[in-house]
Amino acid sequence: AGGGxxxxxxxxxxxxxxxxxxxxxxxxxxxxxxxxRKNLGLLRRIMCQESTKFKNVWTTxxxxxxxxxxxxxxxxxxxxxxxxxxxQPRLIYQKSKCAxxxxxxxxxxxxxPLGELLPSPSDYKASLIxxxxxxxxxxxSADSGEVLEKVYLAGSCxxxxxYLSWDTPQEVMIVKSAxxxxxxxxxxxxxxxxxxxxxxxxxxxxxTFIGMxxxxxxxxxxxxxxxxxxxxxxxxxxxxxxxxxYNFKAILEQFMEQSYDLGQEFNWNGQVGxxxxxxxxxxxxxxxxxxxxxxxxxxxxxNAFQIGGYPWHYIITPNKKKHKGVFHICSLKDNxxxxxxxxxxxxxxxxxxxxxFHPDMSGRIIxxxxxxxxxxxxxxxxxxxxxxxxxxxxxxxxNRENCVNNSVTVTASGRVVKKRFALLDDDPEQETFKIxxxxxxxxxxxxxxxxxxxxxxxxxxxxxxxxxxILLKSIPLKESWDVTYSxxxxxxxxxxxxxxxxxxxxxxxxxxxxxxxxxxxxD
Length: 523
Known about the structure:
Layout: H1 2-11, H2 16-24, H3 32-47, E1 52-62, E2 67-69, E3 72-75, E4 80-83, E5 90-94, E6 104-110, E7 127-132, E8 136-141, E9 147-152, E10 161-168, E11 172-177, H4 184-188, E12 195-203, E13 208-216, H5 217-220, E14 224-230, E15 233-238, E16 242-247, H6 248-255, E17 265-268, E18 271-274, E19 294-299, E20 305-308, E21 313-316, E22 326-331, E23 337-344, E24 354-357, E25 365-368, E26 372-381, E27 384-397, E28 408-410, E29 416-418, E30 432-439, E31 444-453, E32 456-465, E33 471-476, E34 486-492, E35 495-502, E36 506-516
Antiparallel strand pairs: 1-36, 2-3, 3-4, 4-5, 6-7, 7-8, 8-9, 10-11, 11-12, 12-13, 14-15, 15-16, 16-19, 17-18, 20-21, 21-22, 22-23, 24-25, 25-26, 26-27, 28-29, 30-31, 31-32, 32-33, 34-35, 35-36
């Protein structure tokens, strides 16, 4: 209290709310947030020094998928957990092999919210929420794998929950079923299936059941192919490329018949059960009886639709196959196409280019092609404050200085040879961008570029200044990179982790850690 009063006097602030706001923005040198930012700034400078290397400290192979979450490597269907934070990865826990009926379908890492009182001491530590093939939702300790909570999801209404996602990250979670499909015999008998998906909604820490609802053909139409919930918006996708947005919070409030708590007794179709317990599971207590008010709709090829920027804009591809690789950036307010809002790299490649709003919340847009990364920004058109234009902030270009792609060459004997075809933009023998990511704590843009010569592919991870795109550091990856395999690369402060999936479900994991040593190290 004395320190708070001193801070108030020192800065001339006489209002507690203003003081707390200034502390949240890091105005005071002794504030924990300021110290943390300074430490991350030091780490960034150390990491980008020429003498700093990244060394391959650990490699493992597995016959089952490998996952990475916040310094933890999960193997054997989450039965084995390894920390990657130590100088060399070490085992945290190893559980006995689970039966097929206990197989984990999906998982989310749950971290403790700051400044909140929670009912259990275990709530203050990181945990893993997993969904099993038998429709159990489990909360596991991230340090031991111990089951902290368990909820049975599937009652009489649904038997196949398969997907976990965040509506609001670390606050509201969505559990989605697989699409309901009738057996062939039932379809031949003329039986109609109107319910396509079920969505169960939970608030986390403490784990609280909000409700369950169904996505029904009678309400949303016959051609629904998928649904998602994000940031309070229900997103419904249709087979003809149509995307419709609804206010999810308003749907919960308008159509909820009755609220239930986990562990509460309830009567369902004449049977008394307990919410979240086997065999009754969860009641479908949100019944949508009428089409909710439509917030927005757009037609886009393959339902590709994104919202972001400031003021709000959205990105679509015109809904015709000939427009694949063409992106339109439009105002969400009036659907007006931004000036220079048509982005087309005119790539001739096997893999298409991709575009998305920058995850750093700057409102910028990242457009990635085989040999070019464009970072774009929205800005007002001069003398037209109500109109926005797309301008180039900076570009990152692949290193293709040694690449010669002449259509006509002359042999040593003087014979002229004409090529019948041109190289693709993502030809494996040319350096090609495969992954672009953003490290928020160090404010770095990371790229993975690959060149394959014969059977041997070489990749390097580059760190770029997020503000200007300047190359700060390049890290060669020691292992061969086959462009036909599936790859994931994680850059997490002083750690680089590469997960590779080979044919026949063979997985490999390579861990690199920062080494600050001026001495030459050939390892």
